[in-house]
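UDP-N-acetylglucosamine 2-epimerase (non-hydrolyzing)
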Amino acid sequence: MKALVVLGTRPEVIKLAPVISALKQRAEVRVCASGQHREMLQQALGAFGLQPHIQLDTMSPGRSLNILAARLLEGLDTVLEQEQPDWVLVQGDTTTAFCGGLAAFQRGIRVAHVEAGLRTGDLASPFPEEANRSLLARIATLHFAPTPMAAAALRAEGVPAAAIRVTGNTVVDAIAQAKAIWPEGVPASVPAEIGQRLAAGPVVLVTCHRRENFGSVMEAFCHMLARLSEQHPGIQWIFPVHLNPAVREPVHRLLAHRPNLLLTDPVDYHTSLYLISRASLVLSDSGGIQEEAPSFGTPVVVMRQHTERMEGVKAGFAMLAGQDPVVIEAAVNGWLSDPARCETLRARQNPYGDGHASARIVAALYGEPCEAFHG
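Tokens:
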């Protein structure tokens, strides 16, 4: 069997790396990098020792999603003609994932969708991710749902049960793979400045990058973080700032030079995981962090109107706070004032996976039976 794995963003690398590793033991695997997020992609590839066999050049600053999609479809069509894979594997909800699936579908090649079935029910939130994954559900051959809830969403949309496998989320596999190479439980890549902050006191990790939080929403978040850092001077606030200028400009303009708030460039995956493991709380709009934090028993305040990851909310790991800074600030203060509540999370199982998702995916690609992840 020959499989072509198409990826283009940091989360895709993280969640497909353990699948690639497992699949290589049985199949010929080719990896195609779409070029969607080139800088952050290289950082993630390095974390797992991956090197793409094919590198496309599709993304240009300031270009629209339509232009990116057009360039992706053109580039991927050439790749598919040359490679002739039996399967194309895509992950999640990016423009790369949707175009990888569409290009394969239009050439009659089977599509395997990793992390299928996540839904908010609102096509505008998150945008364009909700549309991308919904459209992929119409053309995929196999749907690898990470949880029973995701599988139920697919069945409700008419996807045949026989085409769905509940695998658990591969991010839990990736965490285990990453932690296995940390000397004495600490990644070698942690920057000295971050290490100093971790030694200085309790930490809150902050990330923010989604389109729906750009503009005035981002500025309001920054003002809120300034207040929180002043209210809690004994806490170190660490904010790896996304490379997108829509994030970097307001964050650096409004939050620079605060003594207990560290603004850094994006950190590598190992450092990111270590920060989550050491944090008292995470404040984020990231989907991946919502799935990673439960492995470390770390609570997350989610700065979004909707989340497609309600499993964490129901299990008590996450709080969906919306975009109102007053509500978010109250949620943060609620967690920080109740350390006993945070401590109860340490003993709970991650509702998103058990570390065996990749093995289930490979078995399904070969038509072999395997026990489903039950959550």
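The first strand starts at residue 2 and ends at 7.
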